[in-house]
Amino acid sequence: MKKIKRVLSLVVVAVMLTMLVACNTTETADNEEVKTIGLAISTLNNPFFVDLEAGAKAKAEELGVTIVTLDSQDDSATEMSNVEDLINQGVDLIMINPTDSDAVKSAVEAANNANIPVITLDRGANGGEVVSHIASDNVAGGKLAGEYIVELLGGNGKVVELEGIPGASAARDRGEGFNAAIAESNIEVVAKQTANFDRAEGLSVMENILQAQSEIDAVFAHNDEMALGAIEAIKASGRDILVVGFDATDDAKAAVENGEMAATVEQLPKEIGSLGVQTALKILNNEEVESTIPVDLQLVTK
Question: 128 and 101 in contact (C-beta within 8 Å)?
Fold first, then answer.
């Protein structure tokens, strides 16, 4: 009987030790440091950047990373405040989708001073230390759009260029590619004006241009939001004008499909966000990454 009791006691002790080890293992796993990535995004009032954030969040969930998104509302001062907030929260890395490539320099430098690595998404930073920049080749995209307009107009005509936010690298690069593509043709840019990547501004700016210009054959907008606004103004005027946008948002692709928009240059915003998180984790694990990581693009036509 005593032997049985001793055996039972040993069994109980063994079970308790097993449970204790299991608990400690679980506790250790629970206490493993989860990396936190901050995302200062230019605006969440634009479908392209909503998709970019969605791609980042999906990849973060997949990789077990925490992501904190702050909306800069297309304002550089808000962007700076957001980056300072992320620094104060003690995030491990900051991804910035800049509102303005020049103005973001101070925000990047603030992160540098806090020893927090920085990645830029879609738009670059003209200053500060950025470990990696992930974006489509906006110059090549602008060139695609310009070449298509040259083809549709047979190398002759008058076009309008609706520009993005002044200072944004995407606006500068898309404009550069577009103008390079039409330079050897007989196409004339009769109006060039910013509408700040905004649909409502695209509508109002295009209304004014339509009143000032009696001859317009095509419009190139630096993003789909402005292009869709321009289409509304053109429809109201009753004129027949080709419109090419940039980003391939769902609304733009629907407009291409129903014949309202001639084409849009397709980027992959979800892929940009996803690559951002993957690259961030590599940096935090002390792996080497490329300073520039390109994301494919293509022209979407009917």
Answer: no
- pLDDT one-digit tens code per residue, 59-73: 999 999 999 999 999
Q: Are 108 and 129 in contact (CB under 8 A)?
A: yes
What sections of the chain are H helices per DSSP? 2-30, 47-63, 76-89, 105-113, 138-153, 169-182, 199-212, 224-237, 250-257, 269-284
d(C-alpha 165, C-alpha 291), whole Å = 25
Amino acid at 8: L
- Enter the tokens of residue 236: 């109201």
DSSP string, 231-298: HHHHHHHT---EEEEEE--HHHHHHHHTTSSSEEEE--HHHHHHHHHHHHHHHHTT----SEEEE--E
CA 139 to chain centre: 16
Residue 32's pLDDT band, with cuts at 50, 70 and 90, is: low
Alpha-carbon span 146 to 150, nearest angstrom: 6
Tokens 């950047």, located at residue: 49
Tens of pLDDT along 116-169?
A: 999 999 999 999 999 999 998 999 999 999 999 999 999 999 999 999 999 888
Structure tokens at 244: 């090419």
- Written as one letter, the residue type at 207 is E
